[in-house]
Automatic annotation (TrEMBL):
PROSITE patterns: ROK (PS01125). The keyword Kinase applies. One of its GO terms (molecular function) is kinase activity. GO terms for biological process: D-xylose metabolic process. This is Sugar kinase. The lineage of its organism: Bacteria, Bacillati, Bacillota, Bacilli, Bacillales. The keyword Transmembrane does not apply. It comes from the Bacteria. Keywords: Carbohydrate metabolism, Kinase, Transferase, Xylose metabolism. InterPro entries: ATPase_NBD, ROK, ROK_cs, WH-like_DNA-bd_sf, WH_DNA-bd_sf. Transcriptional repressor of xylose-utilizing enzymes.
Amino acid sequence: MKSLNKSLILNVIRQEKQISRAEIAKKTRLTPPTVTNIVNELLEVGLVKESTMGVSKGGRKPILLTIDEKHSYIVGVDVGGHKLRAILTDLNGNNLVHYSQELPKNLTNDFFLRVLTDAIDKVLADSHIPIDKVIGIGVGMHGIVDSEKGISIFAPNFQLEQIPIKKHIERNFSLPVIVENDARAFALGEKWFGQGLEHSTIMCVNVGVGIGAGIILDGKLYRGHNSLAGEIGHTMIDINGKLCTCGNEGCLQTVVGGDRLIERTIEKLKKGQNSILQNNKNLTGYDIHQAAIQNDPLAVEVLRETGTYLGIALTNFIHLFNPSRIIIGGGVANSGDFIMKPLIHCVKERALTIEAKSTEIVRSNLGEYGTAIGAVTLILETIFAVKDD
Ligand SMILES: [Zn+2]
């Protein structure tokens, strides 16, 4: 979007869902003729459509403008530590087609790129949307990502380096591709469609196999000098701790990551602690949550410890960034109050000031495909967002 005003108006229509020309002028402080001209351009290219559902204050009903969500479509992919999820959405981020699969073990760069391409092919085929209506592909990739070059610099869960995702996918589909760290994509999704809507400084923490954070400072995604910002999973909290996938010891991820949750449960079972999980050979995070629901003391204890450690990590983060809200997503967060209660309790106990103690901490409501929706938002942002740089 070249013109700042055009992007400003488009964004107001998106945020308000339905709005009249007069209201747009009021909100943007642009003159009514400027608004009319730009709206005409947007109507012409089909990004915006008219509806007459406004409420009349005497006289005829005002014509309202909305985004024409069927104007174009976007593919979003979430590449987690064990799982890949792909979706196709319209311009309003509505999930129209989705697909997920477990990722094979022993991936190589080439094999991974083939799996990724096949998944994108699958959602495109299932959607029956003609490819010329698709405007881009966003990829949220775990690990360290150079979003400018679109390269996965290091994917710790696959032990792969320098994967040229953008180049490969662009060549295959002839569409613009944006690659971003998965937690950052998730944060953008929350800011646009989820629990971050009304907030300008938020932290979104994805707690799955790994733990990553996406930080939005004053309305903008914060990447840091070398795309490293938000690697909360590799903040070290135990100098005598377990070996992490990054090579260090005692990272937060080695205490509260999804795999570690299961390991800690097994360790406690081996010590002879009583539990209904005793005879479960293929223990999953879901099993632990289910056991906790049935008041299994071991399961409740493991989740409580997880919540407390997360609470310590988040208290540190509150002291660094002072967000107005923290949003928790990812598989481990599905355990709900078993983790959230001790987490919030820990922050209340340890944060410095009354304001810091009452930092809102909520769970994501975007569901399993939240990060994929965030990946879609990477593309949406290039159309809608007002860029001042
Ligand atoms: Zn680590």
